[in-house]
Amino acid sequence: MKSKEIIPVVITVFIVNAAGILLKIFELPAFFTLLGFRFHLSLVIPFLFISGRLDLEMIRKEFVSADYRKNYPYPVSLILLPFLITLVLYLVNYVDIGDPEYFYEFGLSSLFDLPIYLVWNAPQLILFYFFILYLKEKIKLNNYMVFLVFVFLFLFEFMSSVINETDYLSIICLPIIALINLVIINKFRNIYWFVCFNFLLLWIPLLLFGSASETLVKSLFASTYNTWEGFLEVNKVLTGYMVPGFLISVSIMLLIFLILRKGKKGGTLLQEQ
């Protein structure tokens, strides 16, 4: 990697955060909806900066040569531990079935509309997938640098929490998601798994536990709602811990699978296939 190759990436990160902060100052959303499709600043702008440098043949191969069968048990099984933990918390009365507002028109309808929401979010996740591949394969950034780029691209979304010293638990979600994505794209390289897994990684815990983030609710669910209370009512002791806990438990499951694979193949946890 040459220093001149990283400069456009640094500029991209700066522009994304500058634009995001400016939008927040004017209380405008950091995403827009076009014909139902969601486009978030941090997922779309980076691709625009590198789109002219991508190899069209590489793009084609990512769509037509993805192996669906080789790795499917791993991403599917990653949600087992979070659900088991939630079940245990329910049995010991730390979690109960809630009675949220818009239970039917938002909650239950979201279950039936899941394929639609997934399709609406797929384009922006596809664009981000190719941006990550560009960092790794074209300019040869190592995994730690890719991790930092990922985190800094979404930094503006959490700056208000840092400044106001509030909601630190949501801040830790960002590096966890970045780490999960880095491992997924290295070990389970499949554009379709990447899109589905990333969508469900947030959609599932937010549907269960709710969210006050207008950006997340409007992006992952129906754009006519600003907040969602969640299907499950959580004890005050655990309020704020459930979504980070869900992500951490997914990380634990991922680590278990990688250790098992490492024993068979050797190599480090973040080594490319």
Provide the gyration radius in Å.
Answer: 19 Å
Mean pLDDT comes to 84
Largest sheet composition: 2 strands, antiparallel
- Termini separation comes to 20 Å
String of helices and strands? HEEHHHHEHHHHHHHHEH
Number of strands: 4
Which structural class matches the secondary elements? mainly alpha
Shape: globular
The fraction of residues assigned to DSSP E strands is 5-15%
Helix content: 55-70%
Q: How many helices does DSSP assign? A: 14
Note poorly predicted spans: none
Strand neighbour order, sheet with most strands: 1-2
Architecture overview:
The structure is a single chain. The protein has 273 residues and is mainly α. The chain is 66% helix and 5% strand. The strands form 2 sheets. It has a two-stranded antiparallel sheet. Helix 7 crosses helix 12 (191-209), helix 11 (173-187) packs parallel to helix 14 (242-265) and helix 12 (191-209) runs antiparallel to helix 14. The longest helix is centred in the middle third of the chain and has 25 residues, at 114-138. The radius of gyration is 19 Å and the shape is globular.
SSE topology:
Elements: H1 3-25, E1 31-34, E2 37-40, H2 41-50, H3 56-64, H4 73-77, H5 80-91, E3 95-97, H6 103-112, H7 114-138, H8 143-153, H9 159-163, H10 168-171, H11 173-187, H12 191-209, H13 214-220, E4 232-234, H14 242-265
Antiparallel strand pairs: 1-2, 3-4
